[in-house]
Write a structure and sequence with these properties.
Layout lengths: L2 E6 L9 E6 L6 E2 L4 E6 L4 E5 L4 E6 L6 E2 L4 E7 L15 E3 L10 E6 L9 E6 L6 E2 L4 E6 L4 E5 L4 E6 L6 E2 L4 E7 L11 H7 L7 H4 L4 H6 L4 H10 L17 H9 L47 H16 L2 E9 L1 H13 L9 H15 L5 E4 L2 E4 L5 E3 L1 E3 L2 E3 L2 E2 L7 H16 L13 E5 L18 E5 L3 E5 L7 E13 L5 H16 L7
Parallel strand pairs: 21-25, 25-26
Antiparallel strand pairs: 1-8, 2-4, 2-7, 3-6, 4-5, 5-9, 6-8, 10-17, 11-13, 11-16, 12-15, 13-14, 15-17, 18-28, 19-20, 21-24, 22-23, 26-28, 27-28
The structure holds oxidized coenzyme A.
Length: 531
Amino acid sequence: MSNAIDIKVPDIGDFSDVPVIEIFVKPGDTVKAEDPLVSLESDKATMDVPAPRGGVVESIAVKLGDKVSEGSVIMSFKADGVTQAPAPAEAAKPSVSAPPSATNAPAGVAEVRVPDIGDFKDVPVIEIFVKVGDTVKAEDPIVSLESDKATMDVPAPLSGVVTAIGVKIGDKVSEGSVILSLATGDATAATPAAAPSAAAAAAPAPARAAASTGAVDEAAFALAYAGPAVRKLARELGVDLGQIRGSGDHGRIVRADVETFAKGGGAAAAPTAGKAAAAPAASGVGGIDLLPWPKVDFAKFGPTERKELSRIKKISAANLHRNWVVIPHVTTHDEADITELELFRVQMNRELEKSGVKISMLPFMMKAAVATLKKFPEFNASLDGDALVLKNYWHIGFAADTPNGLMVPVIRDVDKKTVPEIAKEMGELAKLARDGKLKPDQMSGGTFTISSLGGIGGIYFTPIINAPEVAIMGVCKSYWKQHSSDGKTYASRLTLPLSLSWDHRVIDGAAAARFNVYFANVLADLRRVLF
Ligand code: CAO
């Protein structure tokens, strides 16, 4: 037996005339209780209105852009079940997430609790990111928990100042455990997330899949512009919101963006023969049936000490692991004669001495990379299912060695910048990276990466591709080498070792060899960038 009810906008605090920004269902859809139905967005918060109970959508009373307030009918619904009492739509609490701008909650002190973390219980706190007196924004990570299956960051459900911390490292927590108290700001921007319990529920579910996908950059995820339902979906699919360019208004990430990203052209399982070119589903690689990792009591063999990996190391390790396992890497080595370029670099540094900018080989390599990428556009691309997305912009990432681990800041529009401009920006970004202050958008959007060990040493290595890019250039320290074009006469030339790793699903060996030759030729004579 079923029961037709009108679904109304529940209590959404002081908000009225809030536009509908997304409708998640259509007539005929079957929904479960708590499934999101529509998303509303005020200037302070994005709110999803969930289904008060399971049933079938009969008709939709609103369209995108319509303005609604508490009590507005949004759809008509045929509810499941035998009980006749109309489902109290008002009882359904909207779940709230903050828009990218800072969000304040009504004045008061909110207890922030561990949200739903699935089947995990008694999970140790491995990192506390805040201290008493810190100001946090909604979605900022506050603590990290680590089960034997996954590392999960618990984000702040709302903005405020930390007044007390209820846990210490090593404490074991479960859903509902109090983590800290947050004094929320003045009541200028009341949001329904004010109540601590609602606040905890509003926190995006932690990265349950992080261990299997290893792909989620929590900081970028927290800053992404998306509503609660979209965040939840992203968590379920193991999609890193930080990697998605939203197609909604002002770049908001909508459901379809997450679904398209997750499809990425493949099932969760390892690509089949027919899908050989497909990018992996973000929800995991699967299909790799390995022996368990050896468990050894090292202390039996000698003294040991234990050092926890830094957060950055954990995140980059997971990303590198995924990229290494998923992408069929091949590395092609070559060398560039940079004798003339080095003379030019030294000369330019002399001329620019007063400007304070010092130019290493790397900014020249960035320019050479852009010139080469323009000749070989499939290297400036990403796999999207069975298609290649060729990018008509050239944002070059560079690997930076920091005390906390490897980071890859991105210099945008390298084609439009001069070598000194690139050098200056590179210095600033490298400093931010070393100080742990890089923002997610300073590490996103790269189309190709250069990893330079030139300041350190080595001759060749295999750099790991920075997905979803399809190639990366590794360079080592230049050295003087005897060259001969005829086998009779020799000359000493400053030689730069190149190691290009490429994704064999996209690039063939011949193209990679040509890429290296062209890149080396540009470095040998930078006038070629004009062609
Ligand atoms: N050959 C010879 N010398 C080189 C060189 C090369 N290929 N590249 C740089 N150098 C020199 C520089 O000219 C500089 O010399 P001076 O001190 O005499 O001026 C010195 O080495 C140090 O350079 P640098 O490393 O400070 O500057 P950079 O622009 O080359 O690199 C940065 C900047 C941030 C990329 C670098 O500091 C860094 O972090 N590199 C490590 C990257 C990394 O870890 N990659 C591995 C990733 S895979 O795990």
